[in-house]
Amino acid sequence: MKKAYRQHIWVMVTVTVVMAVMGALVWQTCCQISIAANHARYAGMTALVAEKIGNTIKSMEMSAMNVFDEVEKHKDTPESVIAALQRKTSLNPEVRGYFAAFEPNYFAEKGEWFEPYVHHVDDGDFKLRLVGSARHNYHKSDWYVRAKRGHKSFWSAPYYYYDGTNISGHYTTFVKPVYDDDGRLACVCGADMTFEWMSAELTRFDNQLRNNELLNKYFVLDDFYTMVINDDGSRIAGPDDKAVTLSEAVSANKITLHRSGAVEMTVNGVPSTVYYVPINRVDWSVVLVVAHQDVQPVMLTLGLVLGTVMLLGLFIVGLVCRRIKYVEAA
């Protein structure tokens, strides 16, 4: 009897250990699958936002090129240049204004500075201003010098423009040099874009993703937000209440711009995963910051199911062993 009892105990212990090991392996495997699925999901979300922002920027470029072509066709007189700008200004509502900054004395009667600027005003209408002056010597501006040397279109680095009027603000400018019939630089055309629209777009994308039924069908989305950063890691656009800069991460090569990836780091004192994807056509990246959360509810449910199955299995094994003991005793 004692020998049979010890055998039953060993059976129970062996079964318990085997089930515990199996349960731990299944739990670990499911956790790894959950982590991999989360990485794939958030990386996909980041790429989707980057693609949408890139498409908007592309449409801005196309409308700007139409304006620049119009200026190039009508650069005979200052009046024809201004008329060309005014005809095309309404092409893209996200562009704050268009300008044509001419070489010194290109039009003798206009002197050293001639830069007509047609821009939106608060009431939705457009206003013409001549902004070139000794105070605003655009010939020395980085975007003008770069266009003159590079002979191609580009997006300028973000900058802050202030002149005391309602057009002051944070900008980036799509720039293209325009040449005369002899191949000499006539002017540098530009389309100014503020970053307010981009912050609004990011907020809209975030809300769409949070409310997406398919994304939330099996897993609950963690606390996240998206931003656009410059090539030095400084924030260009994003939630107003998130004063985030990733400059240190960029300088330490934790975030490799112009490439996609993810990095574990602390953001504003919160352990987070930062996903990043470059935006086509510009030197910026979309980053999605995900705060680390507890195990997903589906994993807790799985753990509860595994625990219940193990207890039920042990109970059944106990009953079988007890039944065997009674049979042997008989």
Structural overview:
- By secondary structure, this protein is α+β, with helices and mostly antiparallel strands.
- Helix content is 44%, strand content 23%.
- It is built from six helices and twelve strands.
- Strands 1, 2, 3, 4, 5, 6 and 7 form a seven-stranded antiparallel beta sheet that branches. Strands 9-8-12-11-10 form a five-stranded antiparallel beta sheet.
- α1 (2-73) packs antiparallel against α2.
- 26% of the residues are buried.
- The model has no long low-confidence stretch (mean pLDDT 80).
Feature tags:
330 residues; alpha+beta; seven-stranded antiparallel β-sheet; five-stranded antiparallel β-sheet; 6 helices; 23% strand
Work out the number of β strands.
Answer: 12
Mean pLDDT: 80
- Helix coverage percent: 40-55%
Overall morphology: rod-shaped
| Helical segment count | 6
Q: Kindly estimate the percentage of residues that lie in beta strands according to DSSP.
A: 15-25%
Task: Give the termini separation.
Answer: 11 Å
- Major β-sheet annotation: 7 strands, antiparallel
Helix/strand structural class: alpha+beta
Regions with little confidence, pLDDT below 50 for 5+ residues: none
**Oligomerization:** single chain
Radius of gyration: 32 Å
The ordered string of helix (H) and strand (E) elements is HHEEEHEEEEHEEHEEEH
